[in-house]
Amino acid sequence: MSTSNKNSKRFTYKNAGVNINEGNKLVNKIKNIVKQTERPGSIGNIGGFGGLFDLKKAGYKDPILVSATDGVGTKILLADEMNMHDSIGIDLVAMSVNDIVVQGAEPLFFLDYLASGKLNSDKSKQIISGIAKGAKLSGCSLIGGETAELPGIYEKNIYDLAGFAVGAVERNKLLPKKNLSNKDIILSLTSSGIHSNGFSLVRQIIKQKNIRLKDKVLKFSKKSLGEYLLKPTKIYVKSILYQNSLNNLKACAHITGGGIIENIPRAIPDSLSANIFCDLLKPPQIFSWIKSEGNISNLEMLKTFNCGVGMCIIVSPKKVDEVRDYFNKIGENASIVGELSTNSNNKKINLLNKKNIW
């Protein structure tokens, strides 16, 4: 039987590790930041029980909704070690909106989930500012989110991020198209760096080799290794939406976990194979450094990292020059890396000349 004692210690939520006032302070700090992401269809302000969005006001007539969710993974640990939290939110948005746009959909709104052992409103503001920047880059509205303080699950200074986006596409613009065929061309759009996949392997190499994130290991760069690794994931939304509006695209593949090997097959039917000319990939030096330091095989690199290819788009041979010239004109650095063929060997991807990548 429990007994009460008026002289015993009073328990409070704050003493248990959850500071509601700090959470309220954060909401006030980010209201103006979030407001800057408003777009046609956005309704109301943050702070309600649910985010609202009006598809009719966004201009859709016969829409299909497309949703995606993701996190940033162990890249967060590098951000924490470098005390650089202003771009990790861009990564969070990019991982979802890039998945949405490959189906021809326009990202409409985004919600985030930020969990930590102890809420730091200044650090959280940096993170959410990055999320808002990612939302603006992709043209979607940050309409809500959740900030959770979870002592006992996370250590005091550790946090994790997750989020999801919802987009829409008119039914006749949905990708991939059903007319994918033999001899269609695969174009690569360059990545901005490692993006947000493979960091558990990168961190293992750094730890075992006693490399510091503050070190400058790349001779061509004035930045430290940590700064280079934390370059945010490129967002390809607006350029792909524009080309899809012209009916120039047949399919797209966001090159994330699994690399080219696992992601391109997701965009094509079983009747076709993707033939990748590996000698045309030309990975940036950061990937060469990782490969060398970790003594990693070509195949393992292609299965783990984007190796310089952030997005692949598939077009007909008749459209390839027009599409490639457009992407190059706006700075996306597009190049041919493969073509489709009839699947005659029960393999949806064939890596050609993979010994000649590096």
Topology, pairings included?
Blueprint: H1 20-35, E1 42-43, E2 52-53, E3 63-71, H2 75-82, H3 88-101, E4 106-116, H4 121-138, E5 141-149, E6 159-170, E7 185-190, H5 199-208, H6 225-229, H7 237-245, E8 251-254, H8 259-263, E9 272-277, H9 285-294, H10 298-304, E10 309-315, H11 320-329, E11 334-342, E12 349-352
Parallel strand pairs: 4-5, 9-12
Antiparallel strand pairs: 1-2, 3-6, 4-6, 7-10, 7-11, 8-10, 9-11
Helix pairs in contact: 1-4, 3-4
Would you mind describing this structure in some detail?
The radius of gyration is 23 Å and the shape is globular. The chain contains 11 helices and 12 strands. It folds into 2 domains: 20-173, PurM-like, N-terminal domain (60s Ribosomal Protein L30, Chain: A, 2-Layer Sandwich); 185-356, Alpha-Beta Complex (Phosphoribosyl-aminoimidazole Synthetase, Chain A, domain 2). The strands form 3 sheets. The protein has a 6-stranded mixed beta sheet. Strands 3-6-4-5 form a 4-stranded mixed beta sheet, covered by helices on one side. The protein has a two-stranded antiparallel ribbon with strand order 1-2. Helix 3 (88-101) packs parallel to helix 4. It has 358 residues and is α+β, with helices and mostly antiparallel strands. The mean pLDDT is 91.
